[in-house]
Amino acid sequence: MTPLLEQFLSEARDFLEGIGEKLMQLEDAPGDAELMTALFRMVHTLKGNSGLFDFPEMTRVLHAGEDLMDAVRHEQVEYSQDLADRLLDAMDFVGMLCDEVEAKGSIGAHHAADSARLAESLRRLIASVDAAAAVVAVVASALPNALTETGIVVAEADLPPLVDIPESIRMDAYRQACGGVDLHWLDYTPAADCFFQGDDPFFQARGTPGFLWGSITVRQPWPALAELDAYRCVLEFHLLTTAPREQLDEYYRYVPDQVRMIPVTPLFLALPQGNRNGGPVAYENFVDKALGLLGANQLEDLVLAASNLIELSSLELWLSSALRWLLLVMELEPENRNAFAKIIESLRRQSPPKWTELLPKVTGGNPPAKTELHLSQHSLTPEEAEVMTKMLDVQREILNLPIQENWQLGRIKAVAATLTGCLMASGDVAARAGLEAATAMALEEAASLPLLAWLDQFQQTRSTASVESLVNQADVGVPVPRNLSEIQSDLSADAVRVSDVDAEAKFGRRAEDAGIGPKSLKVDQQKIDRLMNLIGEMVVSKNALPYLAGRAEDVFGVRDLSREIKAQYTVINRIAEEMQDAIMQVRMMPVSFVFQRFPRLVRDTSRKLGKEVNLVLVGEDTEADKNVIEALGDPLVHIVRNSLDHGFEQPDERRAVGKPVAGTLTIRASQESDRVVIEIQDDGKGIDPDIVKRKAYQKGIIDEATLERISDQDAINLIFAAGLSTVDVISDLSGRGVGMDVVRTAVEKVNGAISLESEIGKGTRIRLSLPLSMAVTHVMLIESAGQTFGIPMDSVLETVRVPCASISSIKQSLVTVLRGNIVPLKSINALLAIAAPPQANSDHELAVLVVRCGNEAVGLLVDDFRETVDIILKPMTGVLADIPVYAGSALMGDGSVLMVLNIKELLP
Amino acid sequence: MSLEFKKNQVHFKDMVGVEDAEELLEWLQKTPAAKVDFSACTHLHPANLQVLMAASPSIMVWPADAAFSAWLQSALDQHEDPY
């Protein structure tokens, strides 16, 4: 997972939470324009962010949400409870996608359909103010078709025109389906402007996985050629495929709203085709005979009879087609008696078998019903039985409605359809005859009474009979509007079946099951700081244990206890160090947080200056403590601006000296042991030490003598001195003489060091070295004149004991030779104005602590070395703050105060 | 060139792209009894297909690829279902 994606996920969660919160607030104050704007902005940002990744499902929903909020913001759509619900649903969906991305790194294509549905549900609210009414209509019209889930369709008219497919292909498909393959009918209606988006829907359709058969139709009659717009797509593609649903979703994931997938029940393919006229006269007899054979379970004879009849008939006949299907079905589904009977009966009428009547049950989307078209008795779960009871109650209420002439017939039909559906679902075939009779009577009289009577009777038997004789309904809840008045207005007879957008598909993450939270936390920095301070104290107090051990041995003379304390100390020490490390890790941030502002800064600044500069960033993922990273920001900006302003030449100047016209500014971050090193390098004109020297002299920063003998490197370093600017004109970018001096101060404040190298004509390199973390300082303890001092370990080079004889004096200074190098020696007592000579040990050796001071090594004469410790360095405060010799103080484990020396200030 | 026009015949070759649709449309507008040869065609952009569907020229040769041919026939074949 890329850092960008990680950040997106973490932000997305915040946004989702924020959106939820805002929506809640809006419920209390629906008119609050400010809240609305904030909400819009959140959805907008989230959408924009999601667009960075290949998550079409997520972006689609968010886009719809954004459009909706925009409409609300502009008061085109009113805020409503329903709107909030849908938006929350959509956000739940997005949250779920986020979870999936986090878990798997991508979004499964099977969400495309949900995504399209949610997006449509949101957009529908924008469509018009009537939207609300339409929604009720959707729910209501879903009722008669309650048993049809998105895919499987009961009404004949809604069946895909499978008969268009040639018989051989259908038979092949049927065979495959019986072999366990899922069949799907696909309607692909590309957007009218898809050609302009570079789409080739034909190519897309041709490449559909599991492709069996396809056809192309047109949405509207063709206009005259002269008026034809070749680039407005009006085609529709229809396909039959054997690919599993997930694969199809994946394949069409960018256009889920343009694709309708219908699982095909294999038996539905058994549609005889052919010339209905002619054929052997024997076929009338065949039907009776065949049914007889079927009844008597003489299937082999039935096969024989059918085969014989086929031989007698011409191949093109409808009759022989039906017989071929009969044989095929008998071969592949030998158990499915009902299917055989259907085909045989269809022979009598020469009309296709009505497979829908056999439809056994609703399947929950995919996979489609396999071949089990048996009308065996299933049991309803208690919930399903309850739903059915509710449905029946609603039907009763509908029937009891006052008669409205225009609607009455439609109402009766709708109720009859629902009841039929219920019967089919419950497998209660016996009752269907009664229902049909009642329906016919009701239609004839245009009155609800016959149906009501039937319903009464049915419910009576139902309540007495055990509910177990009902079908195993699908797990998708059937939408049952509770409020009848909602239905009343919309239950017009011709309310079209609409696949229900709203009544289903909640996306898991309701308030109660938000069990698995996001994996990253946002924590107030103060809390981390507190933790940091605590671990600091822990480190200090853990350091008290060795003292305790020492006291146990020395004062109380219990050597064993002392050893045990020491053993315990190592354990605590280890844990404390790990804890400290862990907390450090929490505070670590990549330098990219500072670096990310540079591309823009460099671009804008260089453009303003008329220079061409390429920025190269290296090592952006180097990490350091948050405070260090933050402290780095401003100095870096200064340095980069300086580089751009003074460092790089104008393009023509560069061309004249044979450099590439575009300069290169490299910012490189890396880690060196416990420090972060940042180098800013340009290939500009470099710094001329002479100019710096002269400026410094003019400004009175150096005197004449210094001007004469100062080295080039030192001269260049003068630019860090306060008040120096080499440019005469003050621009809005730099030249005020505060730049590099401020940089140095800022860097040193976080214990950093800055160095600069420059070569005229070649460029300048500035190197910042900063500690990874500022919290704990590693110091070495030394003793001198009976006092203990701390020296930061990063300035300690080595500790040596030098025999007094090896120390010689040059003029008034002491020196010694270490491995062939002359090292000047200073007595720490003298430096601190303590009137005591350095003490040698019994071997007449002096303890020399060699420290780094700038680029030189200096030996400090001390009385003795002690151990190194981790301390929390507290800067000096109050009057002591003015004594620069001390870097700060720290509390030791035994309760004493340790003064930590600042080597740079200590050495003149 | 994926389209080759010869008198009242047009030959589709290889992949016929979206940009050819315009030319095809113009040609069909001025060629009333147009005939189409798909024998060397492997794919055509649906914009071309739309033009052909609207103009309904007679198809002389269907593509060699059976599946592709079936697609095109579903769109362009003028024969009515005999039943």
Automatic annotation (TrEMBL), chain A:
All residue ranges annotated as the CheW-like domain in the record: 776-908
GO molecular function terms noted in the UniProt entry: phosphorelay sensor kinase activity
Pfam families xref list: CheW, H-kinase_dim, HATPase_c, Hpt
Enzyme class, spelled out: transferase
Reactions accelerated catalytically: ATP + protein L-histidine = ADP + protein N-phospho-L-histidine
Domain HPt stretches: 1-101
Residue(s) carrying Phosphohistidine: H44
Keywords annotated in UniProt: Kinase, Phosphoprotein, Transferase, Two-component regulatory system
The organism's place on the tree of life at top rank: Bacteria
Record-given protein name: Chemotaxis protein CheA
UniProtKB/TrEMBL annotation, chain B:
Source taxon at top rank: Bacteria
Name by which UniProt lists this protein: Uncharacterized protein
Organism expressing this protein natively: Methylomonas methanica
Taxonomic placement: Bacteria, Pseudomonadati, Pseudomonadota, Gammaproteobacteria, Methylococcales
